[in-house]
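[step 3/7] inverse_fold.run input=structure_tokens len=161
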């Protein structure tokens, strides 16, 4: 059953930012936990998703993009490779670097898990009153803009010197 949406007075901006951050993190964490069922760790799911969005990624770029250290990404990729979900190979433009790529099985699993997460959230949306659902739909471009802005900040930030 959906939580009741309360129309209280406008909260202070700092509280709005905190509530938005907490809600987004909880939705992500709980929906991932619900569908992963031990099939993948959250880090494996995160790395698989990054590879699903990009054809080939250098391991160093993958680590930077996802905010993980390179050792963690290498360990995660090893597990994904053993499961047949990813593969690594030398970077054709720089033999010292390694690129990671999702396999067809990895892509299928990632798509299945994403569909399951969407279905879980759809169950909640189906129980909302029409005006509450309309409010969420209206807010989506703002939330997408926030996500894009945060990604731009991360990718535009200078690396360590």
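[step 3/7] decode complete -> sequence:
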């Amino acid at each position: 059953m959906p939580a009741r949406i309360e129309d209280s007075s406008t909260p202070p901006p700092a509280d709005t930012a905190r509530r938005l951050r907490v809600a987004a993190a909880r939705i992500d964490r709980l929906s991932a936990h619900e569908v992963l069922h031990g099939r993948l760790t959250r880090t494996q799911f995160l790395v698989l998703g990054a590879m699903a969005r990009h054809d080939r990624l250098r391991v160093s770029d993958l680590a930077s993009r996802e905010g993980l250290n390179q050792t963690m990404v290498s360990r995660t990729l090893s597990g994904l490779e053993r499961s047949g979900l990813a593969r690594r190979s030398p970077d054709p433009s720089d033999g010292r670097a390694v690129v990671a790529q999702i396999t067809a099985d990895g892509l299928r699993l990632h798509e299945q898990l994403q569909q399951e997460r969407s279905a879980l959230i759809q169950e909640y949306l189906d129980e909302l009153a029409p005006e509450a659902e309309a409010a969420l739909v209206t807010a989506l471009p703002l939330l997408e803009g926030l996500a894009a802005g945060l990604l731009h900040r991360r990718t535009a930030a200078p690396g360590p010197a």
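[step 4/7] annotate
Strands lie at 57-58, 86-91, 94-102.
The longest strand covers residues 94-102.
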